[in-house]
Design goal:
alpha/beta, eight-stranded parallel beta sheet, 8 strands, binds 2-phosphoglycolic acid
């Protein structure tokens, strides 16, 4: 399996900044036999990027989708619309969507189904809050999120990825502390085991939450971690290219 690197640019980069960073990455020699690299820019930058990147090995993904294919949904963009303009992936249920914009497990499920229907690969984000963790409810929270996302989900001929993103580890304004590699590995193992009751497919599980060029080697050296989903560290050329180069060493 290739190592996944999914760059979540959130609302950090505008149209010009996104294109400049994508073009800078294109000039680099990246070993795509080892790395599956996808960029998740803002919806506005995305079409410009797919036009260029879809001629290359880099992939593009959406940060969020609406589950309806079309209709009177002001301000929304459907999974099918993202597929039509060349996306391969879509983040679903990112913690900022859940906790800032009030997305529920039910919304996340509908989004997953819409992505699968449109042939977009959903990257389903799950993770516990600091409160959950402190109260010993991490497994309870993850179990619930995974059950709502995967129970009776038809995955025949479909791909799907899970991202374990502990909410407490996600950076704010560039400041955050990642989960230790060993702890993340344990949780990834637990998630993979949990997923066995829903599917016999081997579903990749990637880690997100202050992943950066300094900790990527220790994270990826773990047996159960199939990739990383950096936010802040992927928005600056120097840190992002060094994260990719470090990842290549252990992939
Ligand atoms: P971060 O973001 O790397 O800035 O913590 C990761 C994410 O939220 O996907």
């Amino acid at each position: 399996m290739k190592t996944y690197i999914f760059a979540n640019w959130k609302m950090y980069l505008d149209f010009d900044e996104s294109n400049i960073l994508a073009n800078a990455l294109l000039l680099e020699k990246i070993d795509f036999n080892k790395i599956e690299l996808a960029l998740f820019p803002s919806a506005l930058a995305l079409r410009e990027m797919t036009m260029v990147l879809n001629q290359t090995e880099l992939k593009v993904g959406a940060q969020n989708v609406n589950w309806n294919p079309k209709g009177a949904y002001t301000g929304e963009i459907s999974a099918q619309m993202y597929k039509d303009v060349g996306c391969k992936y879509a983040l679903v249920g990112h913690s900022e969507r859940r906790h800032v914009f009030g997305e529920t497990d039910e919304d996340v499920r509908k989004k997953i189904e819409a992505c699968l229907e449109a042939d977009l690969i959903p990257v389903v984000c799950v993770g516990e809050t600091k409160e959950d963790k402190d109260e010993g409810k991490r497994e309870y929270r993850l179990k619930k999120q995974l059950m709502r996302a995967f129970e009776n989900l038809d995955l025949a001929n479909k791909e799907i990825v899970v991202a374990y993103e502990p909410v407490w580890a996600i950076s704010k304004a560039g400041v955050g502390e990642a989960c230790s590699a060993e702890e993340a590995d344990d949780v990834h193992g637990w998630i993979k085991n949990e997923l066995k009751q829903y599917t016999d497919k081997a579903i990749p599980v990637v880690y997100g939450g202050s992943a950066n060029e300094k900790n990527v080697v220790s994270l990826l050296a773990q047996e159960m971690i199939d990739g990383v989903l950096p936010g802040n560290a992927s928005t600056k050329f120097e840190t992002f290219i060094s994260l990719i180069k470090e990842a290549e060493k252990v992939s």
